[in-house]
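2.7 Reproducibility. Because tokenized structures are sensitive to small changes in the input, we list the exact sequence used for Chromosomal replication initiator protein DnaA, including any N-terminal residues retained from the expression construct. No trimming or masking was applied before prediction.
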Amino acid sequence: MMEDCAPGMSTPQGCTDDSDVIATFKEALKQRVGQERFQIWFSGVRFALEAAESAVSSPESPTAPRSIVAIAAGQFAADRLSNHYLSAMRGAAASACGTSTSIRIHVEDRPTRQAELPFPDEGGSAEGTAAEVRPSGDVNQTGTGVNQTGSGEPARRVAGQAAGRTRPAAAKRSGRHHHRGAQSLQSILRDGTDSRKPVRPKPGSVAPSLGKSTLGTSPLAIDAAHNQPPRQSAAEHRAAKPSVPDSTGNGSPQRNECTWETFVGGQCNELARTACKMAIENPGSASPLVLWGPPGSGKTHLLNAVAGKLRSLHRMRRVVSLSAEDFTNDFIKALNGNCLPAFRSRFRDADALLIDDIQFFVEKKATIRELHHTIEMLAEVGKPLVFAGTKAPNEINGLGGELSGRLASGLVCQVEGLDAQTRQQLLARYAEDRCLIPWPQQTLQEIASVAGGDGRLLSGIVNLVALLQRMYGQMPTMDQIRQHGAHLLRSSGVPITLSSIERAVEKVFQLDSKSLQSGSQTKSITEPRMLAMYLAREMTSSAFSEIGGHFGGRSHSTAILANQRVRQWLDAGRSVGRGQAALSADEAIRRIESMLKTG
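Resulting structure tokens (single pass, no recycling of outputs):
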């Protein structure tokens, strides 16, 4: 039997021809099922070519019947191939090898994986419940050394007997038990079928060599194999080892700082903050909750603050909080590793699901479909769902109609760029935490007035000032801050011009470029044009004549009339534009201002 890239299997004569047949078969199969499906469902499948039993006696016959064997990594993958792709494989085999070729699906044999719980079985201690298999000969553990017989046959040794002879007296008196490859029950329940579990060899098989890997072996067993005293107990090893964040990212120091108490509230985020407070007090209400706004407006902080409150107030143990990129990467790993049931168990059995940067899902059709089914299943049982992104779900092109509609069915709240008052409060918070010398109130106000609405940029400015304090030994002046941080202050202030207002209005009302400068008199263009003239007068120092000349060479009286007309729309609450792009005057101005602040 000839396999394509199957390590550890012998190949008969004629290997090259068989390889060509397998390659031709795979190419034909790829044409039948498509490139995307082939990559998902056949990347982990190996193919082998073998002669049928009736043709063993005469293999030289060119028309002898043969079989193509699809070797799947697990039963799930094998069932999937049998139920959905058997006919496609038969057709590809017929085109590659002739109609006498048959298809057979085989499940690859793998060592049995069994997780060991961190407590002993009934009727025995943890040391006396496991037996170890040594890879190179019979191993007799004595007080003087290790004796290998060299027979090449593995021998069983009761771990309790060896541990009783090698365990220090202090460990015996403490009564603590060490268990090889033990995992916490919480991690097992969280991850489902975890691929990191230690592999227990079958009876009669040979365990991996200690020189290659010691994964899943206790420090006591490794030290005994090398005739050395134990370095430290398992409990001491875990205590000395630095803590590693779990798969949800909750152990990150940066995320731990994002609490509800440290969030700086203001008018710019009052709506989103109220919605998150409602989600904390009554989980599952108005679910899914979607927060959207420009970068640096506090969406990720709110997301992690909600996750922390759900854990502390409602005792939710399985709160999954991660980014869209992490969700996508985990999904791809589950597909390639045939671990899709464990992946779905992790997310669909969660108490709450929070995902950041949903715009990352754009054009990822398989991931979008999986996420949509996960959201539907969690929403059916009333689990809280919170998402965050840079745009509203219905404005993210490539997210899919079903998913964007499901996200919009809950509660969608905008988080605006930080206003001047919120920027000043955030600067004061950062300065108090990071700087040795207090900031003058005038410096806080001046920097807050020129900085943009990105909170991360404010963090960078405070770090620079803290460095300047160390360098000068006192609070630097504004001239010194500008001298060393001109790049930060210059990038923070987005200049507002007549052209930038024109582009923002055209984008909000979905108009073609330069349409506001055209001579069109349709209401779908004239009303946005009047709104652009109003904003140009309010947000720039341009005269009416300059504004009218920029928007199609119109007179100053036209710009004055447009300014008066928009004020009437605002007082009456009238909408602007036509069709799907129609918005109320207040909402249109708010969106345009937010777009201008973030560039």
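The CA atoms of residues 320 and 353 lie 5 Å apart.
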